[in-house]
């Protein structure tokens, strides 16, 4: 008898191990599928595959990391950060996770926090050129130019022909007024990439500062040849021509700069100066007055509305959601009938009666997630956004995988000024498979 039970235990154990192995293999299959889809550019499909891998094996750091990369490629950086957080929690030594999280934080303009991630990535992998470059870029955004210069220099020590680092270091030297030193970076960049107009424009700007106006004009000619819409190069070339007393040529450049940017106070000032030199005092006075008016108005000041997603955009994005009115078996309390009646009445344009019917459906069945969601949709269309938020939250509480409810709650939150909360909801909606969320994320969350 003991032998029988021992044999049975062996069989049961083997069976359990076989099931576990099968489940583990399935998680691996989903992971590999996610990698394949990422490589082919199908980031939505990759995200779903990694989500399945995580469901089957929730403690696998690479699955979270790769899902984070998929989200980042869909411009869902808030959602990506949450996945990188989990990947780092599972493997605190993963330098790439810190680096990628830093990138997503930078994309959200959280440069101070990004610096910490880049620093940790560098501690774990001191020879990762990209980490130094990214840290330098964030330091530049924070106006920490000396530190940025050190980081770009280290990047170039590791990768001497890194064109992005050469350009960034040259620009940083300009910020530090090290114009002579910047010339070498822009010159090398031009040798590596003779078609990069930015390099000629930047070198021309440095030559203007060094009073090499002839050299500046030559560089700026090339920059404009490569990019005829480069306002800054017209301004700098106009200034250089003015210094060489070519006022007619300078006037043409300032005129072109103004046509490209109606708010260019430098353009009006330069053209006014040229007009004065050319004897057109009336035109000069007009330009100088315009330059003063524009310069007194801070044209760079951003206007912050309650939310970048206005009501018109909210209405359009909400209209994307398809109704969920599917025929169900009628329950004893007949809540489904009230729900369907509400849908029909709303289609007839009677929102007030539709909401009354949904109130009755919810009264009869307080766990009716679709009724809460539909009532929220109607309330939102009637501009009761706070009431709509409450209904969407109720629907999500009853059905945590209700992707459309996260979507609607996300766009409403965003429109009311809670951009971070709204974008996180949209991220969750996309993660649950509602792909229209990623278009909104791309347009409004970055």
UniProtKB/TrEMBL annotation:
Gene Ontology biological process: receptor-mediated virion attachment to host cell
Gene3D superfamilies assigned to the protein according to its UniProt record, in alphabetical order: Tetratricopeptide repeat domain
One GO cellular component, as annotated: cell outer membrane
Signal is among the record's keywords: yes
Domain of life: Bacteria
SUPFAM superfamilies, A to Z: TPR-like
Pfam families linked to this entry: TPR_1, TPR_11, TPR_8
UniProt KW keywords: Repeat, Signal, TPR repeat
This protein's record includes keyword Repeat: yes
Signal peptide feature range: 1-23
TPR repeat locations: 27-60, 61-94, 95-128, 129-162, 163-196, 197-230, 231-264, 265-298, 335-368, 369-402
InterPro entries associated with the record: TPR-like_helical_dom_sf, TPR_rpt, Ycf3
Stated name of the protein: Tetratricopeptide repeat protein
